[in-house]
Amino acid sequence: MGTINLGIQIVPKSRKKDSYELVDRAIAVIAASGVKYEVNPFETVMEGPEEHLLAIAKKAQEAVVEAGAEEVLVYYRMHIRPGQDVRMDDKTNPHR
């Protein structure tokens, strides 16, 4: 399979930690992965091979737990085109 888009929204719950700080931990994992990504107000979208993106997503949610989240809600959205790559730029450049 080729390149897909994976949107991930991580919603940490904690009585002691700031939720934005916890989300920043997840974004740091994604940024360090080297994949193309874009942070949006409600989710972060990554571009790459599906299995690789799912592994990054798993590490991101684990980082939030390790940083002190007591509970984590994780939402995924994937855009897949069998036999074709899905590129963020193809979808967003016409609107910029």
UniProtKB/TrEMBL annotation:
It holds the Pfam family Thiamine_BP. InterPro entries: MTH1187/YkoF-like (IPR029756), Thiamine_BP (IPR002767), UPF0045_domain (IPR051614). Residues 8-93 form the Thiamine-binding protein domain. GO terms for cellular component: cytosol. Belongs to the UPF0045 family. This is Uncharacterized conserved protein YqgV, UPF0045/DUF77 family.
